[in-house]
């Protein structure tokens, strides 16, 4: 019995737990920005645009550093990269808690902490976890990515409570230490490089070469000759599918971060209380814990593009709902927004990452996903500051949220273009 159980399990499930933990940290550190935006704006008496620029600068720097981190992931492995990332998070967050001027945050948060946060983000989790589950990577990545909304559900309300009671400085300190412990220690002890062989989904580990060779390769995976030809960054940059995936990630990320960083400020202006709004965002995160695994599973069955289209339709509906009916603190609007946002938030990165893993082999997936993270970094860089500037000019978030909905819709068309390019690419490689 015990032998049979061991044969049905493999080390990929340890990597799954580590990925879930890393993404919980990412979800907490990313979504708590909306809490810090209001607290830092009030403390330093700065404009919305300037305060949001701290998080925008983080995104832009992350866009530049992500390809380098992807190459480091391929070269040194996750057991080295992830603990180092935890150290950067600790240093950046502790230093951020001691700043006396806004500009200092551009160094400690936007640069130092960002290196750590990008290092353990969804791109590196996809590159690390996807090779362990080639037949069910959508559901595996979806379950792991549930850590992202779990972090949102836990950290956002707790951070708002800490900020409201003992100040934003202590929020930086407490979460900096907690994030370090969650990232550095378990990854140093248990992390492993992903397998070069894509057939790890079914057999036990270790498995024999005969068992490995008897398994079939998924239809959208790349041939060995092509994997070799794509071993350099230059070859990756000449891939049309990479640029389309990057574009889809960037366009969607700009729209998403125009809302995400400013959502609490918007809800406060709409008449909702601080704790009420923070709890609503936390509950949306709880819904995402179930939504992302379901999204991954459905994408394995029906295809990445169909599920992506459905999810982005829900996201646009959430924005339109809160934009046109959210004034006055109406509870039913908040409830529907939480439901739609909770089930759709974050699935863009999940499905784009899964699509990239469908097309490219493990030996270069760190570099490919690093390129995807450039798109996400562009969104984090442009979204918050663009929404902040529009707010400072107009006094409300109407135009910013409307542009967000348009960009989210545009990303759907780009995702379908990836499918056409990916098919042509696979056919031409045979």
Task: Describe, in short, the structure shown.
With 430 residues, the chain is mainly alpha-helical. The chain is built from 21 helices and no strands.
Quick check: average pLDDT? 81
What value does the Rg take, in angstroms?
A: 21 Å
Helix fraction by DSSP (H/I, runs of at least 4):
over 70%
Report the structural category.
mainly alpha
Query: Mind describing the biggest β-sheet?
Result: none
Q: Report the count of strand segments.
A: 0
Order of helices and strands: HHHHHHHHHHHHHHHHHHHHH
Uncertain residue ranges:
1-7, 198-231, 423-430
Distance between the termini: 43 Å
Number of helices: 21
Oligomer: single chain
Offer a few descriptive terms.
430 residues; 81% helix; disordered C terminus; mainly alpha; disordered N terminus
Q: What layout of secondary structure does this protein have?
A:
Elements: H1 2-8, H2 12-31, H3 33-44, H4 48-76, H5 78-96, H6 102-119, H7 122-129, H8 137-145, H9 147-165, H10 168-190, H11 209-213, H12 224-229, H13 233-237, H14 240-260, H15 263-269, H16 274-302, H17 304-325, H18 331-344, H19 347-359, H20 362-394, H21 398-428
């Amino acid at each position: 019995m015990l032998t049979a159980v061991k044969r049905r399990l493999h080390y990929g499930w340890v990597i799954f737990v580590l990925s879930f933990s890393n993404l919980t940290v990412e979800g907490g550190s990313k979504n708590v920005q909306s809490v810090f935006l209001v607290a830092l704006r009030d403390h330093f008496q700065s404009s919305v645009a300037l305060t949001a620029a701290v998080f925008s600068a983080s995104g832009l720097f992350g866009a530049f550093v992500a390809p380098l981190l992807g190459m480091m992931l391929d070269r040194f492995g996750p057991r080295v990269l992830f603990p180092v990332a935890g150290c950067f998070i600790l240093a950046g967050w502790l230093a951020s808690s001691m700043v006396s001027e806004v500009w200092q945050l551009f160094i400690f948060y936007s640069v130092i902490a960002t290196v750590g946060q990008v290092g353990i983000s969804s791109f590196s989790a996809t590159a690390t976890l996807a090779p362990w589950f080639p037949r069910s990577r959508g559901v595996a990545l979806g379950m792991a990515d549930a850590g992202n909304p779990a972090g949102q559900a836990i950290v956002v309300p707790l951070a708002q409570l800490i900020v409201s009671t003992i100040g934003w400085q202590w929020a930086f300190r407490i979460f900096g230490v907690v994030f370090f412990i969650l990232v550095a220690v378990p990854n140093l002890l248990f992390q492993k490089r992903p397998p070069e062989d894509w057939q790890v989904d079914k057999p036990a580990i270790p498995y024999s070469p005969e068992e490995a060779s008897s398994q079939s390769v998924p239809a959208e995976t790349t041939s060995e000759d092509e994997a070799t030809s794509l071993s350099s960054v230059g070859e990756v940059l000449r891939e049309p599918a990479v640029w389309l995936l990057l574009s889809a990630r960037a366009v969607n990320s700009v729209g998403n971060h125009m809302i995400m960083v400013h959502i609490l400020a918007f809800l406060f202006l709409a008449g909702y209380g601080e704790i009420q709004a923070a709890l609503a965002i936390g509950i949306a995160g709880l819904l995402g814990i179930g939504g992302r695994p379901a999204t991954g599973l459905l994408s394995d069955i029906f295809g990445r593009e169909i599920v992506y289209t459905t999810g982005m339709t829900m996201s646009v509906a959430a924005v339109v709902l809160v934009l046109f009916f959210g004034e006055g603190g109406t509870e039913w609007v908040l409830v529907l927004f939480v439901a739609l946002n909770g089930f759709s938030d974050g699935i863009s990165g999940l499905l784009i990452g899964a699509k990239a893993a469908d097309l490219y082999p493990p030996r270069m997936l760190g570099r490919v996903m690093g390129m995807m993270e450039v798109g996400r970094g562009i969104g984090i860089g442009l979204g918050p500051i663009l929404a902040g500037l529009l707010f400072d000019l107009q006094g409300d978030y109407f135009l910013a949220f409307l542009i967000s909905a348009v960009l989210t819709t545009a990303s759907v068309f780009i995702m379908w273009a990836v499918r056409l390019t990916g098919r042509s690419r696979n056919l031409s490689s045979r």
